[in-house]
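Good morning,

Attaching, inline, the backbone tokens for the sequence recovery test we're adding to the shared suite. The designed sequence is right after.
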């Protein structure tokens, strides 16, 4: 499973925490639940959205996953450390 690591404590708002719990509560699929719990630990799994779509989750849950993914990816992009070697 491929993933992107991020600092959840710096990235997540209280709304993002609630959205994550909504996703967890809305699914009984073990794999999707585990990938979503991973967000709390700072892991954004590449298969999170494709798995949700494959399971045909509700549009509301799919949109919450899309929103979290977009916010986390933007956070990673804005905070990634670039090392310049000379």
């Amino acid at each position: 499973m491929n993933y992107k690591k991020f600092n959840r404590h710096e990235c997540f708002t209280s709304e993002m925490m609630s959205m994550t719990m909504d996703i967890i509560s809305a699914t009984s699929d073990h794999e999707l639940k585990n990938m979503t719990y991973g967000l709390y630990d700072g892991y954004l799994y590449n298969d999170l959205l494709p798995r949700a779509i494959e399971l045909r989750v509700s549009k509301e849950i799919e949109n919450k996953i899309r929103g979290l993914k977009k916010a986390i990816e933007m956070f990673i992009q804005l905070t990634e450390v670039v090392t310049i070697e000379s």
